[in-house]
UniProtKB/TrEMBL annotation:
InterPro entries: ATPase_NBD, FGGY_C_2, FGGY_N
Family of the protein in this entry: Belongs to the FGGY kinase family.
Protein name per UniProt: Sugar (Pentulose or hexulose) kinase
Keywords assigned by UniProt, alphabetized: Kinase, Transferase
Length: 446
């Protein structure tokens, strides 16, 4: 039997850790998924269990030769960002994999920003709001000042995608989509490392910078690994040449505009805008909204109040007449969490108002990065792309744009595979990786 040529992609999320095998048409021909229990760091804060994660990856790779129907030609990684693994000269991790939500010491934050331009100037240069541990370079700065003994043993600080790659190649590297992901390490004006990394002496703790399509040798040709948000953008950049806005929805709804090259303003930074780096090393302007998490919390509240099952809301049909009634009843956008549920006659009415309130915030968030770009198409992927209310309300919020629900199976994993396409795939990338469903706005939202 002729073996199927495939690439193995590890897609490491905060909750699910997955292995995919893609064939040359980027179809999933094998999938494995696990959930790993968290552990705690030395302060008792929850964090990824790095040993379990390491074991999952190495065991899965060791099992690949036994999958005799497949010819595994390469391996790559897509993982969540803003997480650093500190390794010594033997490659052993020196610390836990600290959670990017770990509270950051106020005194250390003040010390850093006072020394390197202040809390107004520095974020403009680094293209990121002040986010504490979520600025992963600040984790390295913290290690230097709070754990100097371990810092002296530090050989390299690797972002999680690059640590995954290191496990298979024993080659340490840095990579642009991770370095450019609100790390405080990159100077977006000069397109190089920020000067503080030199002044603090941490530049030498960052492994050599490699392009996103770099491949290392080993049992399998292995990529550098990519930050998942940037990887998920790759199928869209490959398939669509006209300017577009991608709203990637999940816990966070992130509006990504690869075609807006205007510098971030103070006002945009204060409203949670930032820049990523694409796999080509180009700035991608983005804004963030915590809408997925808010949706989850409020659906729970509505379901409890009206004695409904939360699953009932996942496929609720869009009711344009009800939306028009609610606009007359509540002409001003509000925060749904502050609304009294007793004011609504039904769960359907309450849920429609929740989505109207979320869309008012979503419109504002998307408009922040639409400025200055000639975008005609808005693509939505992730959970909300299947939500009729969200999609129709978004189309109504942007009547001069074409709004599409986009479907691409496992976009971040496919992006990691496409980043090293020429290494393993002799065929051209398929032109229909992303399928689109157009939505029309049937009601006013102003």
């Amino acid at each position: 039997m002729e073996k199927i040529p495939v690439i193995a992609i590890f897609d490491i999320g905060k909750t699910n850790k997955k292995l995919f095998l893609f064939d040359e048409q980027y179809r999933i021909v094998f999938e494995e998924s696990v959930r790993l229990e968290e552990t705690t760091d030395e302060d008792g804060d929850a964090c990824e269990d790095l040993q379990q994660l390491r074991r999952f990856v190495l065991d899965a790779v060791a099992a690949l030769p036994g999958r005799e129907q497949f010819d595994v030609r390469a391996v790559n990684f897509s993982t969540y960002g803003a997480s650093m693994v500190f390794i010594d000269e033997t490659g052993r991790p020196l610390t836990p994999l600290y959670n990017y939500l770990k509270p950051y010491p106020p005194s250390l934050r003040q010390q850093f920003y006072e020394q390197y331009g202040g809390e107004t100037v520095f974020p403009r240069v680094s293209a990121s709001p002040i986010l504490g541990s979520l600025n992963s370079g600040m984790q390295l700065y913290r290690l230097k000042y709070e754990q100097p003994v371990l810092y002296k043993k530090l050989q390299y600080a690797l972002h999680l995608p690059q640590y995954m790659s290191f496990l298979l190649t024993n080659t340490a590297c840095s990579e642009l989509t991770s370095i450019g992901c609100h790390t405080n390490l990159w100077d977006f004006r000069r397109q190089q490392y920020h000067e503080w990394t030199e002044k603090e002496g941490v530049r030498g703790k960052l492994a050599p910078l490699q392009p996103s399509d770099k491949v290392f040798g080993g049992n399998y040709p292995t990529g550098t690994g990519l930050h998942d948000s940037s990887a998920a953008l790759i199928p869209y950049l490959v398939q669509f040449k006209e300017p577009f806005l991608l709203i990637s929805t999940g816990t966070w709804c992130i509006s990504l505009n690869p075609f807006n090259h205007s510098p971030l303003t103070d006002d945009e930074l204060q409203q949670d805008c930032l820049c990523y780096l694409s796999f080509h090393g180009k700035p991608v302007k983005a804004s963030r909204l915590f809408a997925g998490r808010e949706h989850e919390l409020q659906v729970t509240r509505i379901a409890a109040h009206f004695s409904k099952n939360e699953n009932d809301f996942h496929h609720m049909r869009f009711d344009a007449a009800l939306v028009r009634q609610l606009h007359l009843k509540y002409p001003d956008a509000g925060v749904f969490a502050k609304r009294e549920l007793s004011a609504f006659a039904s769960a359907e009415e309450a849920y429609h108002q929740l989505m109207i309130d979320i869309m008012a915030q979503q419109r504002h968030s998307a408009e922040l990065v639409l400025q200055g770009g000639e975008v005609e198409n808005i693509f939505v992927d992730g959970g909300f792309s299947k939500n009729e209310l969200y999609m129709h309300l978004l189309a109504a919020a942007f009547p001069d744009k074409k709004v599409y629900g986009a479907d691409v199976a496992q976009a971040s994993a496919i992006g990691a595979a496409m980043a090293i396409h020429s290494t393993w795939n002799k065929k051209n990338a398929p032109e229909n990786l992303v399928t689109l469903t157009k939505f029309a706005g049937a009601i006013p939202v102003s």
